[in-house]
Specification:
Strand content: 15-25%
Radius of gyration: 15 Å
Number of helices: 4
Helix content: 25-40%
Organism: Campylobacter concisus
Number of domains: 1
Number of strands: 6
Protein name: SMI1/KNR4 family protein
Structural class: alpha+beta
Shape: globular
Order of helices and strands: HEHHEEEHEE
Length: 124
C-alpha cells in the first residue's frame, strides 16, 4: 500500500513540526506558492515534466525540502534549482558525459553520493 501525498505531508508535520522550534527546518512538505516558475524551468530545460511530477510541484514547495540525506532544494527556489542542477556550471561541471544532457532526463534531487534522475518522457 502506498501513502498519498497528503498522508505523507501530515506524517512529516507530526514528526518534524515540533523540531522546527529547535531550528531544524526543511523536512516538511509545505504548500506551493509559485507554480508559474515551473513552466519556465521546463522551457529552460527543454522538457515537459510528467503529470505526476507536475502535480507534486504544484502542490508542495520543495525549495528547502530535504529528507534522509536527499535534498530536493536548498536555496528556497526549486524551479531555479532544477535548472541549475541540469545545466553546465561555471566550472564546466555537469552530471552527464558528452556534450549534451540526455534528452528528457533531469536530476530532480541529490544525496551523498547519489543523484536522482527523472525520465520526463516515461515518468520513470
Amino acid at each position: 500500500m502506498f501513502l498519498k501525498l497528503d498522508e505523507i505531508a501530515r506524517k512529516l508535520d507530526q514528526i518534524f513540526l515540533p523540531l522546527e522550534q529547535e531550528g531544524m527546518t526543511g523536512m516538511r512538505l509545505l504548500p506551493q506558492k509559485d507554480t508559474l516558475a515551473f513552466m519556465q524551468a521546463q522551457k529552460s530545460l527543454g522538457v515537459n515534466f510528467p503529470a505526476k511530477f507536475t502535480k507534486l510541484l504544484n502542490k508542495f514547495d520543495l525549495g528547502e525540502f530535504e529528507i534522509c540525506n536527499v535534498s530536493f532544494g536548498s536555496r528556497g527556489d526549486y524551479a531555479s534549482e532544477l535548472v541549475r542542477l541540469n545545466s553546465v556550471d561555471e566550472f564546466g561541471g555537469k552530471w552527464w558525459s558528452g556534450e549534451e544532457r540526455p534528452v528528457n532526463l533531469i536530476v530532480f534531487a541529490v544525496g551523498d553520493p547519489w543523484i536522482f534522475l527523472l525520465d520526463c518522457a516515461s515518468g520513470a
